[in-house]
Amino acid sequence: MKKKVTKVFASTGLLAALLLISVATSTRAQSLEYRIRANIPFDFSVSDTKLTAGKYSFGRAIQTSDDTVLSVNDLSGSSRSLSTSMPVESWHTTAKARLVFHRYGDQYFLFQVWPASATTGRQFTKSRAERQLLGNVVMNRSKGHETSAQVVTIFAGVE
User: Fold this and answer.
1) In the prediction, which pLDDT does 77 show?
2) What ranges in the chain are assigned the alpha helix state H?
3) Structural domain harbouring 75
4) Nearest 10 degrees: CA dihedral of 90, 95, 99, 103?
5) Residue 38 region, left (φ>0) first, then alpha (ψ -120 to 50), else beta?
6) CB under 8 Å to 43, separation ≥6 — which residues?
7) Contact yes or no for 53/152 (Cβ under 8 A)
8) pLDDT at 17 (0 to 100)
9) Distance CA 59, CA 57 (A)
10) 86 found inside a domain
11) Domain for residue 24, yes or no?
12) What is the pLDDT of residue 32?
């Protein structure tokens, strides 16, 4: 009887350890520990920093930290932005990482960064410039003009 109880505890302990490892690995894959790389075909803003079109990487500002402060780096090394972000949840995932932008006319603002297959992404607060453009859209809509903000999504790879 004692051997059966010991065997059950050992099996349960092994199962719990495997489950814990699986959850930890899944959480790492859904974070921005691994940088996202994308070619952005338009000029855009992150918070109050304007960046030109080109190849960028997106990820943690400090590798050993969490995803709160993100860095956006031009792969040529000429541009960089550091911005705080907040978590955002979604039931829908995509196999590839994605970047979500808000577009107002010809101006683009990075809004969200989503790792591949993640249910948690990171969202930036609207900058002063974006809030002003959004106010213009609302005012024009109230005057009967057909202007609106658009959502643009770019799918990206992982470094």
Assistant:
1) 80
2) 2-30, 128-142
3) 31-158
4) -80
5) beta
6) 50, 51, 52, 53, 108
7) no
8) 43
9) 7
10) yes
11) no
12) 82
Token pair, residue 58, equals 């997106």
Q: What is the pLDDT of residue 53?
A: 95
The helices-and-strands tally (H runs, E runs) of the chain is 2, 11
| Closest alpha carbon to 90 in 67, 66, 113 | 113
CA dihedral 25, 119, 71, 66 (to 10 degrees): -50
Q: What is the pLDDT along the chain (159 residues), one digit of tens a residue?
A: 666 645 545 555 544 443 334 333 334 445 688 899 999 999 999 988 999 999 999 999 988 888 899 999 999 888 789 999 999 999 988 899 999 999 998 999 999 999 999 999 999 999 999 988 888 776 666 655 555 679 999 999 876
Buried b or exposed e, range 41-66, using 16+ CB within 10 angstroms: eeebbbbeeebeebebbbbbbeeeee
83 inside domain = yes
CA 1 and chain centroid, separation: 53
- pTM of the predicted model over 0.90: no
Question: How far is Cα 73 from Cα 92, in angstroms, rounded to an integer?
Answer: 27
- Asked whether the beta carbons of 88 and 114 are under 8 A apart, the reply is no
Number of domains in the chain: 1
Whether 6 is covered by a domain: the verdict is: no
